[in-house]
Design brief:
Distance between the termini: 28 Å
Strand content: 25-35%
Largest sheet: 5 strands, antiparallel
Shape: globular
Number of strands: 11
Strand order of the largest sheet: 7-11-10-9-8
Helix content: 25-40%
Structural class: alpha+beta
Number of helices: 6
């Protein structure tokens, strides 16, 4: 079972990353899904998405949970029945889950040059310190996207926009941490954010 990495940022928070190397059949065999989740998996057109979904259930098992311990609210945000906070992500051949006693968000993205084409859609303030000709431009864009996606998952409020409501303070990729803010409806929220690169992917998590 390819549990790729476990991170414990603090005593209340754990991150687990799964490398998806198994086939759909191998991932399906040892787990039990609720009827609605089975219907959802069978309705997915891409086997890559099916394997991503199932790998998350294996990560739940690593935390001691089953599919029956998880539910989603009206905004699509996942929750655990025991009251702990959870966030979920998967991208291509990796998936990740963070569980904590506090509100959390996590995102994994594959590092791809085409992110530069859509940068104007999710970058606002950050253009003040980003340098498009820098060697680490794509890496930084991917970090910023992952942080903002993690914040969005944590806050789970429809209508929030990456460019206007989320702000990531300048950082160095090697530092693997920075501060981010949510500025929404005349209130500001500060978050510690952490990130790391691996196998051509970036993972960020906030709490």
């Amino acid at each position: 079972m390819p549990l790729y990495k476990t991170i414990t940022p603090n005593s209340q928070t754990t991150v687990k990353i799964w490398q998806i190397t198994e086939s759909y059949e191998e991932l399906m065999q040892p787990i039990t899904l609720r009827d609605e989740c089975m219907t959802r998996v069978l309705g997915m057109k891409s086997e890559l998405h099916q394997r991503g979904f199932l790998s998350v259930r294996h990560l739940l098992a690593e935390f001691g949970y089953t599919d029956h311990d998880l539910y989603y609210d009206e905004n699509g945000k996942p929750h655990l029945k025991d009251g702990k906070y959870i966030s979920i992500t998967h991208s291509f051949t990796f998936s990740g889950v963070i569980v904590s006693d506090h509100e959390v968000g996590i995102d994994i993205e594959k590092q791809r040059e085409k992110i530069a084409v859509i940068a104007h859609k999710f970058i606002g303030y950050e253009f003040d310190y980003l340098v498009a000709t820098a060697d680490d431009y794509i890496n930084k864009l991917t970090v910023i996207w992952c942080i903002k996606e993690s914040l969005y998952k944590l806050f789970a409020t429809p209508g929030m926009m990456f460019r206007h409501h989320f702000l990531v303070i300048p950082f160095m990729v090697k530092d693997e941490e920075t501060v981010a803010w949510i500025d929404y409806e005349d209130r500001k929220y500060r978050y510690n954010t952490h990130f790391f690169e691996f196998e051509g992917f970036t993972c960020a998590y906030v709490y």
